[in-house]
């Protein structure tokens, strides 16, 4: 076996499969694009779903990748086991309806054992197979030549996630030797596939050959696939003879840096502290990549995951004697380790460090609050002679303040308290159920449709140059069947030539009509999407009989199309303007280009200020008025990237790409439609800016006629305001409003002064009417004041003058509303009387409810006619106390 670094292993894997005709796919961002079923990209195959279910047919049916992934379902195991991680890389090779079992198995064996590649000793490799998979067993035995005692049949070797592709799998294990095993040699689990540390699974090959139908049955896939996964962290530990994944070049530099920051702890000295080193190293990698891919800390979704990871790392840092912020200092270390495959980490290091440092600083404040709460809980339980801290309290410390259960247990143990672990686990399970319920219920992978996948009819899109085309109708699909003619109804159609744009990159599809050669309209085009093999597939409403192989005239709605392309060009200008104003960390997170408006989502730490929005808007309009030429260059990807064109991972790029260049200002990969000159946009206006998720903001804007209409409506409102304010010029409106606000403020002060005077006068009369009931004095009256604030002022006077034991005051606060306040002096409170009990007794009589402290409580109601009954009830309540 060769001595290889993690970077060499990753590159050798990709190079091997590239030599076998695979395209190397760049690792996708961890934040899923257009997949509501996933919180994170959690595997290599997660980015291949569109290929596996047949919704998209790739140009090359052989693909390989090293995909970064995040899983947090068993986060508590990180650091305590040898191979649990939140962030990991999955090496994979995929066949989409191309090669199958024999090639997948023999190539895996070649890569692992060939002297030209990994050169692992064959005798150290074992495999497991699904018992009914005779073909896989045959290939391993007869083609590869593995001895029978190195092949194990395991019933669990079947990959199935529900609806969609599924099938048996074959796992490859490496024998690390009995010296690394955690079991006696004769233990029944000490075999490849058993629960042991000796035989390490390094590769899983899934033979995706069945469709799992919605009814639970299985049928052969129209196109069989290969999906493999090799965990980079695991295989690196094999090559570097590491007992765990953490003693490799993927983690040790982070651990070494953490030890230097600690100054008092060293990895390997103490098993408990080693856990903290591992947690910090793992979490530093995860948050660095997650933030670099556009996620930000928050209280929900993936943002909550990042916040939780940062807080766990900080807590483990404290266990190592690291106080204050430190996690952000590990970002550059992560970047150096991964720079050969992910240079963007170092490029974004300043931004990532800033995000983590701000979150750490916030947590320092939260941590103090958490410690104060824990101290209060300990004191409370000690006073009540409790020996166990409630699980709900421990979970609140965990969920709100980031306290790991072990830390709470450690602190409470010093105070002689245990923690209810069962109740804590119950709260944790409830949280997991809430998280699962919050996910989309959309299916994770569709059932493969062989009909659409097999349609490979050539179809040419000419919409960049013409909005009218003559095209032969090649395919008609209705009710999932190919037909040769249709009289009415809705159908999907593919033409040899079309001017209709298929929805992509946020730009909506064109609309229009299909005509006979004589000009008669036979169908309306209501939508256009890409078929699995890339053709523009038209969804049409058929008005007259149509037949395949007949030539039709296809016409796009030009007015609709022109509005869309103006807004599309505006999104490119907006994208660059946001980078100019907010910084290079900002990148597009989605868009929608409609004829009447545009929507642009982008990453940013917080809301965009009014000042920055004005700057963005001004820049875009300046570029519109500069009459910048909009050019399209068709070239190869490498040349386009050298030109500096901005690319999005979510867009599908072939050998040739279109680069849209707007003067010298903006240059992006784009397959959409655009204007010829920015002056066609006329005007750009931002309508709104809002948050749509953790770290994602949304701008909605309008151009051209819609921008004029928006401003005209605003102008009309301003004119109406000026008329009402009786000013002749718009510039006088703000000053006039300031004057009116000052007048209102003065009137409010006068009003309060008068109300206070009236209340004082009323108080002099009301406070003289004292009843004695059950050896307690009571003042209960209806007063004519403006609301609860005035009632509280009267209650304060009552308290300061010690006028009675109990006070009940009520007032009508506007039409159909009632306010009531109750108060009880300190001596009576000590005797057991509570204002909250009194308010709960009398509030229902005025149609309301309320509560408060033992010495004061308040309520609202909707039945003014019940006030006298409530005051009488107060006297009855006092009579019953004793």
TrEMBL record:
Signal peptide (UniProt feature, chain positions): none
Keywords in alphabetical order: Aminoacyl-tRNA synthetase, ATP-binding, Coiled coil, Cytoplasm, Ligase, Metal-binding, Nucleotide-binding, Protein biosynthesis, RNA-binding, tRNA-binding, Zinc
Entry keyword Protein biosynthesis: yes
InterPro entries reported for this sequence: aa-tRNA-synth_II/BPL/LPL, Ala-tRNA-lgiase_IIc, Ala-tRNA-ligase_IIc_anticod-bd, Ala-tRNA-synth_IIc_core, Ala-tRNA-synth_IIc_N, Ala-tRNA_ligase, Ala_tRNA_ligase_euk/bac, DHHA1_dom
Protein localization: Cytoplasm
Positions bound to Zn(2+): 568, 572, 670, 674
Residues forming coiled coils: 730-764
GO biological process: alanyl-tRNA aminoacylation
Principal location class: cytoplasm
EC number of this enzyme: 6.1.1.7
Catalytic activity: tRNA(Ala) + L-alanine + ATP = L-alanyl-tRNA(Ala) + AMP + diphosphate
Domain comment quoted from the record: Consists of three domains; the N-terminal catalytic domain, the editing domain and the C-terminal C-Ala domain. The editing domain removes incorrectly charged amino acids, while the C-Ala domain, along with tRNA(Ala), serves as a bridge to cooperatively bring together the editing and aminoacylation centers thus stimulating deacylation of misacylated tRNAs.
Designated name of the protein: Alanine--tRNA ligase
Lineage: Bacteria, Bacillati, Bacillota, Bacilli, Lactobacillales
């Amino acid at each position: 076996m060769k001595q290889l670094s993690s970077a060499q292993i990753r590159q050798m894997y990709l190079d091997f499969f590239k030599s076998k005709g695979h395209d190397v796919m760049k690792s996708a961002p961890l934040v899923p694009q257009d997949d509501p079923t996933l919180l994170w990209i959690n595997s290599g195959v997660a980015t291949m779903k569109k290929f596996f279910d047949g919704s998209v047919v790739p140009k090359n049916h052989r693909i390989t990748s090293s995909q970064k992934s995040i899983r947090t379902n068993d986060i508590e195991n990180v650091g305590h086991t040898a191979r649990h991680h939140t962030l990991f890389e999955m090496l994979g090779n995929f066949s989409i309806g191309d090669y199958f079992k024999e090639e997948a198995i023999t190539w895996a064996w070649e890569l692992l054992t060939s002297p030209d590649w990994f050169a692992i000793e064959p005798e150290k490799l074992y495999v497991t197979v699904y018992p009914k998979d005779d073909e896989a067993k045959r290939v391993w035995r007869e083609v590869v030549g593995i001895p029978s005692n190195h092949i194990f049949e395991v019933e669990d070797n079947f990959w199935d996630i529900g609806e969609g592709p599924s099938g048996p799998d074959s796992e490859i294990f490496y024998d690390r030797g009995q010296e690394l095993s955690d079991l006696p040699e004769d233990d029944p689990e000490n075999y490849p596939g058993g629960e042991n540390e000796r035989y390490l699974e390094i590769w899983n090959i899934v033979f995706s050959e069945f469709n799992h139908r919605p009814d639970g049955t299985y049928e052969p896939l129209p196109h069989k696939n290969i999906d493999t996964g090799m965990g980079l962290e695991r295989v690196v530990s094999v090559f570097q003879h590491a007992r765990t994944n953490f003693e490799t070049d993927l983690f040790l530099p982070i651990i070494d840096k953490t030890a230097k920051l600690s100054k008092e702890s060293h990895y390997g000295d103490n098993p408990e502290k080693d856990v903290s080193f591992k947690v910090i190293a793992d979490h530093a990698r995860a948050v660095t990549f997650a933030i670099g891919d556009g996620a930000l800390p928050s209280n929900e979704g993936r943002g909550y995951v990042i916040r939780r990871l940062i807080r766990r790392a900080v807590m483990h840092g404290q266990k190592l004697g690291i106080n204050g912020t430190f996690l952000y200092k590990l970002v550059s270390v992560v970047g150096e380790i991964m720079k050969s495959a992910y240079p963007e980490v170092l490029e974004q290091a300043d931004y990532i460090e800033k995000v983590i440092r701000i979150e750490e600083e916030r947590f320092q404040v939260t941590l103090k609050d958490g410690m104060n709460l824990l101290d209060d809980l300990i004191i409370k339980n000690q006073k009540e002679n409790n020996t166990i801290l409630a699980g709900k309290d421990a979970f609140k410390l965990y969920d709100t303040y980031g306290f790991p259960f072990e830390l709470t247990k450690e602190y409470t143990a010093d105070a002689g308290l245990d923690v209810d672990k069962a109740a804590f686990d119950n709260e944790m399970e409830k949280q997991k159920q809430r998280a699962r319920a919050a996910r989309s219920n959309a299916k994770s992978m569709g059932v493969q449709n062989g009909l659409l996948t097999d349609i490979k009819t050539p179809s040419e899109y000419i919409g960049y140059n013409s909005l009218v085309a003559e095209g032969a109708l090649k395919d008609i699909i209705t009710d999932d069947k190919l037909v040769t003619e249709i009289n009415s109804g809705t159908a999907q159609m593919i033409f040899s030539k079309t001017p209709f744009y298929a929805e992509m990159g946020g730009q909506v599809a064109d609309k229009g009509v299909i005509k006979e050669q004589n000009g008669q309209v036979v169908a309306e085009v209501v939508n256009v999407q890409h078929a699995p093999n890339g053709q523009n597939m038209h969804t049409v409403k058929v008005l007259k009989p149509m037949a395949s192989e007949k030539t039709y005239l296809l016409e796009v709605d030009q007015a609709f199309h022109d509005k869309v392309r103006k807004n599309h060009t505006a999104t490119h200008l907006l994208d660059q303007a946001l980078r100019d104003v907010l910084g290079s960390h900002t990148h597009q997170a989605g868009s929608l280009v409609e004829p009447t408006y545009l929507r642009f989502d982008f990453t940013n730490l917080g809301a965009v200020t009014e000042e920055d929005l004005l700057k963005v808007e001004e820049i875009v309009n300046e570029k519109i008025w500069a009459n910048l030429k909009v050019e399209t260059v068709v070239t190869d990807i490498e040349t386009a990237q050298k030109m500096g064109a901005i690319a999005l991972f979510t867009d599908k790029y072939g050998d040739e790409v279109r680069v849209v260049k707007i003067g010298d200002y903006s240059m992006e990969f784009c397959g959409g439609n655009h204007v010829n000159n920015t002056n066609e946009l006329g005007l750009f206006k931002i309508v709104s800016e809002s948050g749509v998720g953790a770290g994602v903001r949304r701008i909605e804007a309008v151009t051209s006629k819609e921008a004029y209409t928006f401003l005209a409506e605003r102008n009309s409102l301003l004119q109406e305001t000026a008329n009402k304010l009786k000013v002749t010029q718009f510039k006088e409106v703000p000053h006039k409003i300031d004057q009116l606000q000052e007048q209102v403020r003065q009137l409010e002060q006068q009003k309060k002064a008068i109300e206070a005077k009236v209340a004082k006068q009323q108080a002099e009369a009301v406070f003289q009417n004292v009843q004695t009931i059950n050896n307690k004095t009571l003042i209960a009256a209806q007063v004519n004041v403006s609301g609860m604030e005035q009632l509280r002022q009267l209650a304060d006077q009552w308290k300061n003058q010690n006028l009675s034991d109990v006070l009940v005051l009520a007032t009508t606060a506007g039409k159909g509303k009632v306010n009531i306040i109750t108060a009880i002096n300190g001596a009576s409170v000590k005797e057991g009387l509570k204002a909250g009990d009194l308010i709960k007794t009398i509030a229902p009589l005025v149609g309301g409810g309320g509560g408060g402290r033992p010495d004061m409580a308040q309520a609202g109601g909707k039945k003014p006619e019940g006030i006298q009954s409530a005051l009488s009830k107060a006297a009855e309540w006092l009579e019953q106390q004793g």
